[in-house]
Amino acid sequence: MANRDMSSLIGGGVRDVFGEDSATEEQIITPWTRAVASGVELLRDPRYNKGTAFNEKERDTHYLRGLLPPAYLTQDLQVKRILDNIRSYEEPLQKYIAIMDLLERNERLFYKVLIDNIEELLPVVYTPTVGEACQKYGLIFQRPHGLYISLKERGRIQDVLKNWPEKNVRVIVVTDGERILGLGDLGVQGMGIPVGKLGLYVALGGIRPSLCLPVAIDVGTNNQKLFEDPYYIGLRQKRATGQEYDDLIHEFMFAVKQEYGEKILVQFEDFANHNAFKLLAKYRETHLVFNDDIQGTAAVALAGVLAALRLTGGNLADQRYVFLGAGEAGTGIAELIATETSRTAKISIEEARKKLWLVDSQGLVTKSRFESLQHFKQNYAHEHEPCEDLLSTVKALKPTILIGTSGKGGTFTKEAIEALASFNEKPVIFALSNPTSQSECTAEQAYTWTKGRCVFASGSPFNPVTIDGKTYYPGQSNNAYIFPGMGLGCVISGAIRVHDDMFLVAAETLASLVTKEHLKEGLVFPPLQDIRKISAHIAADVAAKAYDLGLATRLPRPADLLAYAESCQYSPLYRPFR
Ligand SMILES: NC(=O)C1=CN([C@@H]2O[C@H](COP(=O)(O)OP(=O)(O)OC[C@H]3O[C@@H](n4cnc5c(N)ncnc54)[C@H](OP(=O)(O)O)[C@@H]3O)[C@@H](O)[C@H]2O)C=CC1
Ligand SMILES: CC(=O)C(=O)O
Ligand SMILES: [Mg+2]
Fold this sequence. Notes:
alpha/beta; seven-stranded mixed beta sheet; 14 strands; binds NADPH dihydro-nicotinamide-adenine-dinucleotide phosphate; binds magnesium ion
């Protein structure tokens, strides 16, 4: 018998059927080890640390005795203590630093504090404060959150993903930092946004923290102020564009699928519109992706409009809309409203679109501008005389609903709002731009200028306003109502693609949760304190739609999707340790 060449046998074991060893022989692997944490290491591990809430037995078993002061605090008392601390800071940014510091120390306590006090703390971890945090991210930087992928990592993005400690990632929020809220290009400091959004995936949606991965793609920045900032934490070079940019994103998109599989959800966030539409169109065919600024915003705004119509009367097809701002948010909302109008009024999408008018930085979008318009505005280039500004547009078109998506603060002028109020009994005004400084008008302005007759909502929160003894409650029209439930729906159904109908369903579900009592107070969104239940409802209905469309892979389909969604939601309560 001929001698067998034994050396060839040593080469086996790669790409094995168990998926345990998928590296090729040339690829570098990371030698992970697992150990039971104890002592100081346990206290320094935010996933397991309970601080003063470790009980006597746990202190003995895990070698903590002496490393903690003797007092035992319940988690509820810890929550109260943290809140007292946060409330003692005057500056929102100080509150942000304090609560993000807690995330680094004790993850469950962070989420318990956030979930129990969502209305108070959402403006701290999210808009508006997260905007200021991104602007000063280098200055306040303590420990890195999320994964930084820059041009330096070109060609080895999959290896970089392997450095992330969690292997079972299901949701990624990624930004390239070019359009952070209405604050423009903040380069890699935009990382605050994916970190904040994923914090909401957990707190508002109930996705487990370990499943979430925030990513900042750093291709440089065109923000001169950041170039001059000694504390800037990103690449100091002009933004890469064209093929170089596309190649990096492409490598990233395929690395995440390679690493985490077909069902990895990628949420594009705060990309500038010249990339946002392109990336969505390209990757929605091959990946489970959506763009939050286009699609998530559209769903929340449509929900707000549907609820507002219960206050003002009429249906979608009776309305005339003017948008100040014709970018991702504006055209995204317009297209979803047109789709829903076409569906419910049984008219063509072209007919439905004619009810929606856009104003951009050059004035009213009209047919005569068609050739020079970006493609995403072209469906809304209707026949009309030119109108240079909002006031002349409002006077000419007499809209029933005015929506601000310009990213520019103070652009809803007194004259324009008064004109709107002159021909509407109950004008609907949504000032959606973030953060608060970029809101098209304040709640107080809207109620004052319309003599309390408007239905108002804004992207960033405003406090209730009292005028002549009457109090008005502005709603918050923010995609945070949508994306956590959308993500949960995708995860629990094992969806492999996001279909636009899933956003329609999310909008209808959100609107259906607005009660008569909410409407009586002028609220067109349900209270944020109920957001986990709201997210579960959205998740269940999104999942149902994914099953109906044949996009869901988790089989068999659970009989009661709402109960299933709720049962999947993460709880931040401490678990007893052995
Ligand atoms: N509430 C929410 O949930 C959300 C809010 N947003 C907010 O919406 C805003 C816009 O975001 P996005 O659509 O992505 O941004 P884009 O950059 O895609 O669009 C901005 C649009 O506003 C127009 N514009 C700028 N200045 C003026 C002006 N003075 N008058 C009229 N139009 C103007 C631009 O005109 P031109 O095209 O001519 O440049 C462009 O059409 C941001 O502040 C963002 O934070 C976004 C997503 C969600
Ligand atoms: C809310 C949000 O996504 C934005 O302002 O960009
Ligand atoms: Mg955004």
